[in-house]
From TrEMBL:
<dbReference type="InterPro" id="IPR036390">
    <property type="entry name" value="WH_DNA-bd_sf"/>
</dbReference>
<protein>
    <submittedName>
        <fullName>Uncharacterized protein</fullName>
    </submittedName>
</protein>
<dbReference type="InterPro" id="IPR036388">
    <property type="entry name" value="WH-like_DNA-bd_sf"/>
</dbReference>
<dbReference type="Pfam" id="PF24033">
    <property type="entry name" value="DUF7342"/>
</dbReference>
<dbReference type="InterPro" id="IPR055766">
    <property type="entry name" value="DUF7342"/>
</dbReference>
Length: 180
């Protein structure tokens, strides 16, 4: 591929969506705070319109702004994302028993990693990468397991919440039920 040629996926994305849509998609998928310039670059749009979209998202409570560092950054409201994911899980057609089994599976997987590596967290596992006796494949494996472990930790919290609040998260069809 030519360096000046846009990435195939990004080119398709640019042709099929508006700049505002792309900024929204990028902003809602952030896993860490990012600057307007970074988001604009990822969305393939210019700085000023990206900033306007981000400010609207902040006003709507969808994205948060952090001005405490040297550069203003934006990130999704992770609480809102967790609640939306909990509602999606509740509405997915899974039973509470199936989710309970999935929760047990995730916890069992983490216990296996704790036993295998004699660590208690993904970061402790990352810390084992300083071992000079590890080959490149084992380092890659441990990095991937640490990422998966961190992901499972987040999922455990959300799935646990869904199980605990199963009745509360049930969709209602009666507006009186929802407001009462």
């Amino acid at each position: 591929m030519d360096e000046d040629e846009p990435h195939t996926d990004r080119g398709y994305l640019t042709r099929q969506t508006t700049g505002e849509d792309r900024v929204r998609m990028v902003a809602l998928q952030l896993s860490e705070p990012r600057t307007v310039n970074w988001i604009a670059d990822e969305a393939g749009w210019s700085h000023e319109p990206t900033k306007r979209v981000l400010e609207r998202l902040v006003d709507d409570g969808i994205v948060r702004r952090d001005e405490s560092g040297t550069h203003t950054t934006y990130y999704p409201d992770y609480r809102r994302q967790a609640m939306q994911e909990a509602m999606r899980l509740r509405d997915s057609g899974h039973t509470v028993e199936e989710l309970t089994d999935r929760l047990a599976d995730m916890k069992a997987q983490i216990r296996e990693w704790e036993d295998e590596f004699d660590v208690e967290s993904p970061n402790q596992l990352r810390g084992t990468l300083t071992d000079d006796t590890l080959d490149v494949d084992e380092e890659d494996r441990r990095r991937e397991i640490a990422r998966e472990w961190a992901h499972l930790d987040r999922r455990i919290h959300i799935v646990g919440f869904v199980i605990r609040e199963w009745d509360f998260l049930a969709p209602t069809t009666d507006p009186a039920e929802a407001s009462g």
